TrEMBL record, chain A:
Part of the 50S ribosomal subunit. Contacts protein L32. Residues 126-178 are annotated as: Disordered. This is Large ribosomal subunit protein bL17. Pfam families: Ribosomal_L17 (PF01196). InterPro entries: Ribosomal_bL17, Ribosomal_bL17_sf. GO terms for biological process: translation. Residues 132-142 have a biased composition (Basic residues).
TrEMBL record, chain B:
Residues 1-20 are annotated as: Disordered. This is Large ribosomal subunit protein bL32. PANTHER family: 50S RIBOSOMAL PROTEIN L32, LARGE RIBOSOMAL SUBUNIT PROTEIN BL32. It holds the Pfam family Ribosomal_L32p. Transmembrane segments: none annotated. HAMAP family: Ribosomal_bL32 (MF_00340). GO terms for biological process: translation. Belongs to the bacterial ribosomal protein bL32 family. GO terms for molecular function: structural constituent of ribosome. One of its GO terms (cellular component) is large ribosomal subunit. The keyword Cell inner membrane does not apply.
Amino acid sequence: MRHRKKFNHLSRTSAHRKAMLSNMASSLILHKRIKTTVAKAKALRMYVEPLINKSKTDNTHSRRIVFSHLQNKEAVSELFREVSEKVANRPGGYTRILKLGNRQGDAAEVCFIELVDFNENMLSDKADGEKKRTRRSRRGGGAKKTTTPATEPTAKAVEAAEETKEDKASDSEEKKEE
Amino acid sequence: MAHPKRKTSKTRRDKRRTHYKATMPALGVCSNCGATIKMHTVCNECGHYRGKLAVEKEVTA
């Protein structure tokens, strides 16, 4: 039974896995984009995103917590200096995984994992998408509704178009998985 | 413990295997250069993904 086994063990012992994720997280923060397999990238995403979240509050305590995970001075200072600045307005989702196909040798699925805010090419025409914040929870939704209607019609149209696109994409993905 | 009474014949084995089939990967067309691409992957030819430049050519190769 795989009930409640949420994360991928990546065929490693706990210590090995933690060391690898720690190294990968440091590399990602220092280089902004690293090439790895999709499975590792997905595991790394779960590992770094909370750390990047922590970097938004710059104090000794959060720095120590992050250091305990990264074990790399340069990476920690880079994270709190450069990365946290760029990431400040983003409510989560700091990384992007770009699949690159299968590699020669073992046919493993390879991908780039990158920090979203450091890829100018992909960012350029998404600038308007950043502004509108969607809140899915109903709590505190009433107050927001009064402020949004002015911009809503255009935003909704764009959203609807994007949604249909994404739906199609996800449909085909499901087919592939089947 | 139960055991097989007979060896599985070649015919029976091969008949079972008629259902083992390779599936075609979902393919699409790159919106930038028109090359055939695997869905949800960066284009191998021009490095675009969903109409945007994702990866410079040198890096992809």
